[in-house]
Design goal:
It is a single chain. The protein is mainly alpha-helical. It contains 7 helices and 2 strands; from the N terminus they run H-H-H-H-E-H-H-E-H. A two-stranded parallel ribbon has the order 1-2. Helix 1 packs antiparallel against helix 2 (about 35-55) and helix 3 packs across helix 6.
């Protein structure tokens, strides 16, 4: 979630995300997966509420919706949480655009791990192998979660402009 995109009345969401990353993630053994999931739920319900407030008939683009957060909670050990089952009852998207970017590319974009937080890699410190394994697992779990939805996969492209054009093409085809 990009804190710069949050309106002032939703600043709590950004603070909560930072606190989860700074206070909970470094001490995973001190917190249960259910506690972690309960904290993440605030952001998930916020996303759902924003979607429900949107004008009917107007297309809404939501980055990851709750699927990435759900996948991270599953990887943290909360796979059987009733909260995850509840999230799956939220309004489902008409279309999922899945950007398939390799862990190697995202590792480079993260400045070789310098820009990562503890919820983006395995191990106490970011390294290429822990990042690659986590991102591979995350992608698998996310694909499991969206397998019953209409999904368009956009493969990795060399330049952001090409990716943006491919996304626009899908949105134009889907929503006119």
């Amino acid at each position: 979630m990009d804190d710069t995109r949050l309106s002032p009345e939703h600043a709590l969401i950004g603070r909560l995300r930072r606190n989860v990353v700074q206070d909970v993630a470094p001490h995973r053994s001190a917190w249960s997966p259910e506690f972690f999931t309960t904290l993440v739920q605030t952001a998930v319900v916020h996303l759902r509420d924003q979607l429900l407030r949107a004008d009917a008939g107007t297309p809404v683009v939501v980055d990851s919706y709750y699927y990435k957060l759900l996948a991270k909670c599953r990887l943290a050990g909360a796979g059987e949480s009733p909260l995850l089952a509840w999230w799956r009852t939220f309004p489902r998207p008409n279309r999922v655009i899945y950007l398939d970017v390799s862990p190697e590319t995202t590792w480079q974009r993260s400045r070789q791990g310098a820009d990562l937080n503890l919820l983006e890699h395995y191990g106490p410190q970011p390294d290429r192998d822990g990042f690659r394994r986590y991102q591979t697992d995350l992608a698998k779990v996310m694909r499991d979660e969206i397998q019953d939805l209409p999904v368009t996969v956009i493969e990795e492209m060399g330049r952001p402009e090409l990716t943006a054009a491919a996304i626009r093409e899908v949105l134009t085809h889907e929503f006119g």
